Amino acid sequence: MANAGASAAPIRFGIYFPEVQSADRSFPVFVFMSFIDLAKLVFLASIWGGSFIFMRVAVPEVGPMLTALLRIALASAALLGYAVLTGVAMNWRRNLKPYAAVGLFAAAIPFTGFSFAALHLPAAYSAVLNATAPLFGALFSVLWLAERLTLRKLAGLALGIAGVAILVGAGTLPLNADTLLAAAACLLAAASYAISAIIVKKTGRHGRIAGGIHPIAIATGSLVLGGSIMAPAIPFSIPAAMPSMLALWCVAGLALLSSGVAQALFIPLIVRIGPTKAMSVSFLIPLFSMLWGFIFLHETVRPSTLIGGAIVLAAMGLVLSASHPSPEDALASEA
């Protein structure tokens, strides 16, 4: 009989696979995600959906490079203060390489790419292209983490991309050099996010797996090193005129909410549930981007929003239930 004083098990959602083969035995597995992890994904989607609105307001006045630089600088300062207050050991000398790698692929490249795209693409279109991150993540996980690219996972990824395309009416923009360059910048940013998630998964500390880096340390160190990588561009990033207070407040929101808070939540989530599942949050971001655009920028919500939103939710369900956890992951998620 279970101990009456033991804490209640967390609520989980999942699909049962009766015989999943491990290296030495068969064992029953539930492919699940706790309610708290799922709530974190939805919250992250809401604040990242807002980031595209922030950039559309800030970048034309502040400039793409300075917007990315200020975003990283403010977020890294906030997280560094949090790490000091909570006693997280940074171990700078030992962890310098993973900090720099994650900083390059999770901050410097994608923040610059999406800031550049904000000059030429509507927020929702950038969000659509950002939704390709799980596809890159699934492919990279097959190459570098030995994950299986199952039919269910492929179907979920394809359905998700179709859903976000319907959600914002993809294909209505005229194609020109600026549009194509902006789209390429978004795809490069999405691929960079996927690479950073692989690095985090391979170096982060999870449950009973010893020797990894604390997730908050990764989030903090990567932003500090990402800012250092971009620092030489500061003299070439000063705007010709002083930006408005609205633009500066948008930069602050972008840095503290969409980067600082988001990184502190997302990196531990990658370590806990894996990169492919964590990056399925990208499918929900356009939904929130449309919602915040309607509320704050008075943008029209079209009928495709409801159809695309339903498809996005279905795709997220497929992706979240597509990966069989390893025995180590199953144990750690119960810890």
Please state the average pLDDT score: 79
What class would the helix/strand composition place it in? Answer: mainly alpha
Counting DSSP H or I runs of 4 or more residues, the number of helices is 13
Low-confidence stretches: 1-31, 324-335
Domains counted in the coordinates: how many? 1
Query: Largest sheet, order of strands side by side?
Result: 1-2
Describe the structure.
- Helix content is 69%, strand content 6%.
- The chain has a two-stranded antiparallel sheet with strand order 1-2.
- It is globular and about 50 Å long.
- By secondary structure, it is mainly alpha-helical.
- It contains 13 helices and 2 strands, in the order ββααααααααααααα.
- The N terminus and C terminus are likely disordered.
- The chain has one domain.
Sum this structure up briefly.
The protein is mostly helical and 335 residues long. It is built from 13 helices and two strands. It has one domain.
